[in-house]
Structures are given as structure tokens and as C-alpha cells.
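Posting this for the archive.
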Amino acid sequence: MDLIPPEEVWAAAHVLIARAETNSTSASPGEAGRPPVFKAVGLTLAVASGLFIGISFVLKKHGLLKANEKYNEEAGEGYGYLKNAYWWAGMTLMIVGEVCNFVAYAFVDAILVTPLGALSVVVTTILSAIFLKERLSFVGKVGCFQCIIGSVVIVMNAPEQSAVADIQEMKKFVIAPGFLSYAGVII
């Protein structure tokens, strides 16, 4: 059996340590090998989720109102809505929207998916004003505009890579004096 010279062992160890340091400072493991199309797919799924969920609220409310008329019930009483196709279509769209939202997290970071969830509120507000004849005040219009602008600004300025690659880095940030001071003041 041949012995490996110590110089080769040290050289191999140096190479392994250098690789480990390079990997720990680069993007998170899930993000390192992602093709650019993943961002487009994730953002599309997040926007579709907002649309589906927003439409589902309007369909479910329309179904509830129709069921209350048909079965002569007070709002919030009875189970007549279970026989209404609009309510079931709304529930189905809600499930599809939540699945799209969940799958979007597999393609892009939460910093991109979460702000686009506000679009469901905007879609619901606009469609309620159109189809349910609900009044949309000036303040509501301004709020919708701010939701859209805020979502776009956050998505356009999101970092290209995650700030935290693993749980050890997260632990380091959580026990940092700055965060502990902030958490102490807030709590």
C-alpha cells in the first residue's frame, strides 16, 4: 500500500475548504442552478394566483347572494349556497389559485411571490364594483393603486439572490444584537 505524501493531502484539503467557502458565499443551493425562465414561471404563477383568488371571492359572494334569494334565507344562515354553481366555481378557483401560489414558491423566492398576493385584493375590489354593484370610494381607488405600485416596486427591486443560504446563517442573523434590540422594542 502506497502512502500519500503529506503535501498532496494538504493540497486536497485546501481545495475542499476553498470550495466550501465559495459555496457558502454564493447564492442559496436552490437558486444556484435555476435557469432564468424559472423567474418568469414563478411570477406568472403568482399573478395567476392573485387573479384566480380575486375572481373566486366575487363568484362565491355572488353565489351566496343568489342562494339567499332563492331559499329566502338571511345572510350567513342555511346551507343553500352548497347547491349553487357560482359558489362551487368560486371555491374551485380559490383552490386553483392557492395551488398556483404554492407552486410559485418552488420557482422564485418569497420576496417575489408574497407582494403579488395583494393583487387578489385589487381584483376582488374592482370586480365587486363591476359585478356586485358595490361602491368603490376614492380612498378605495387610491388603495388599489398603491397596492399595484407597491407590488411592482418590490418585485422590480427584489434581490437577485437570497440573503440567507442555510439555517446557520439565519441563526447568526437572529441572535445579532441589532435584531434582538429591534425585536425587544417591537414586542
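Confidence is low (pLDDT under 50) at residues 24-30. The longest helix spans residues 37-71.
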